[in-house]
Amino acid sequence: MRKLAVVAIGGNSLIKDNTRVRVEDQYEAAKETCYYIADMIEQGWDVAIGHGNGPQVGFILRRSEIAHKVAGMHEVPLDVCGADTQGAIGYALQQNLQNKFRQRGIARQAATVVTQVVVDRNDPSFQNPTKPIGGFMTEEEARRREQEEGWKVVEDAGRGWRRVVASPLPQRIVELDAVQRLLDAGIITITVGGGGIPVIEDENGDLKGVAAVIDKDYAASLLARSIGADLFLISTAVEKVYLNFNKPDQRPIDVMTVSEAKRYIAEGHFAKGSMLPKIEAIIWFLEAGGKEAIITNPENIARALRGETGTRIIPG
Question: Where do the structural domains in the chain lie, given as residue ranges?
Answer without folding.
Answer: 1-35+42-118+170-235, 129-165, 238-316
